[in-house]
């Protein structure tokens, strides 16, 4: 399988988001290998484009990664802020003490004490309704005096929106609570970075915030940045009532021309697609027959003229993430981070 990453489309998506960001800057969320788009390639490309686009250079505040290992991968590529969203400070304390521009996200007392003790600049996370990482509002109020006394180390405050794509009223309540908790500290430190919005959150144009964290919309907004293709290993004719693939879950009704595609659940095409989804071959639907295998998938061919080596369109802008999200009954994030293949990068 080939996984083609159109880096230029990421840039198109960012430019389309400028009006929604208004005066805010943004962290490009490149955690989990840039959602499967290759962490180093995406950061290197954005840094290159930022040298040409003054608006991007001004708005791109930094990058958000999941752990210190990802931070290390891009340290040599950028001088912007690198925000570690998930891994606790205690895990990489020794390394960060000799590293510039890397900021841990602090979400518990243990790691807050370490940051203060070793004078490590940090961002602090409040749980305003996700019930995931972060201090509950009542806990945040208890540490507020600590933060005020160490305001020079506090670089930013963040929270997360779990329902920005589905529940505007709940999002508004989170926004109101977040501002109530954070604006008093903002008055004490004007350059404190308040960031609450995720990709869908940017569409609301929430006020009194300094930055957004844009993840999915980097890769899938105006344009879909990833396309995936494979090819036919073999074609064959199957007769009436022949069983296909493991457990014979598909039976040929009449004479049918079948093709065996390189790719399977190891490559991120889940078994849920069995006897349900289709690929495109020469622009026509080629339905999956039988169970998806580890590295092979059997499809029904549009006609008997198609031979081995034929290109198979698995994911593209016309056969896109909306379709596959319905098939797999999941979200685009899971699909993007699961797909594997030989990576090809296109900049222009």
Descriptive notes:
By secondary structure, this protein is an alpha/beta fold. The chain has two domains: 7-219, Alanine racemase (TIM Barrel, Alpha-Beta Barrel), CATH 3.20.20.10; 226-346, Lyase, Ornithine Decarboxylase, Chain A, domain 1. Helices cover 32% and strands 25% of the residues. The protein has helices spanning 7-21, 31-36, 39-50, 54-59, 68-74, 93-96, 109-117, 137-149, 168-188, 216-219, 321-328, 332-338, and strands spanning 2-6, 25-29, 60-65, 81-84, 102-106, 122-125, 154-158, 193-195, 211-214, 226-238, 243-244, 250-251, 256-262, 278-281, 284-287, 296-300, 311-315, 342-346. An eight-stranded parallel beta sheet has the order 8-7-6-5-4-3-2-9. Strands 1, 10, 13, 16, 17 and 18 form a six-stranded mixed beta sheet that branches. A two-stranded antiparallel sheet has the order 11-12. Helix 8 (137-149) runs parallel beside helix 9. The two termini are 22 Å apart. The mean pLDDT is 97.
């Amino acid at each position: 399988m080939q996984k083609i990453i159109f880096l230029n489309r990421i840039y198109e998506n960012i430019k389309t988001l400028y009006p929604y960001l208004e005066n805010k800057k943004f962290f490009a969320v490149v955690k989990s290998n840039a959602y499967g788009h290759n962490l180093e390639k995406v950061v290197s490309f954005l840094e290159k484009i930022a040298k040409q686009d003054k608006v991007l250079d001004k708005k791109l505040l930094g990058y958000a990664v999941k752990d210190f290992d990802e931070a290390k991968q891009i340290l040599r590529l950028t001088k912007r802020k690198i925000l570690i969203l998930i891994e606790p400070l205690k895990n990489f304390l020794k390394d960060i003490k000799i590293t510039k521009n890397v900021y841990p996200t602090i979400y518990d007392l243990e790691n807050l004490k370490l940051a203060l003790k070793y004078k490590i600049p940090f961002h602090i996370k409040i749980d305003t309704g996700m019930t995931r990482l972060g201090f509950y509002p009542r806990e945040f109020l208890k540490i507020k005096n600590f933060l005020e006394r160490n305001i020079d180390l506090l670089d930013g405050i963040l929270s997360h929106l779990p329902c920005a794509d589905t529940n505007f009223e709940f999002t508004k309540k989170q926004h109101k609570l977040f501002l109530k908790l954070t604006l008093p500290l903002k008055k004490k430190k004007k350059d404190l970075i308040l960031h609450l919005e995720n990709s869908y959150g940017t569409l609301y144009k929430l006020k009194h915030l300094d930055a957004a964290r844009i993840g999915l919309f980097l890769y899938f907004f105006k344009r879909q940045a990833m396309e995936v293709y494979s090819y036919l290993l073999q074609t064959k004719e199957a007769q009436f009532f022949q069983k296909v693939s493991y457990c014979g879950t598909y039976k040929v009704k009449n004479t049918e021309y079948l093709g065996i595609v390189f790719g399977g659940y190891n490559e991120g095409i889940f078994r849920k697609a069995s006897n349900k989804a289709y690929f495109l071959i020469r622009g026509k639907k080629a339905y999956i027959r039988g169970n998806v295998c580890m590295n092979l998938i059997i499809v029904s061919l549009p006609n008997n003229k198609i031979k081995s080596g034929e290109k198979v369109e698995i994911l593209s802008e016309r056969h896109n993430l909306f379709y596959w999200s319905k098939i797999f009954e999941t979200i685009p994030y899971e699909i993007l981070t699961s797909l594997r293949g030989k990576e090809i990068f296109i900049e222009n």
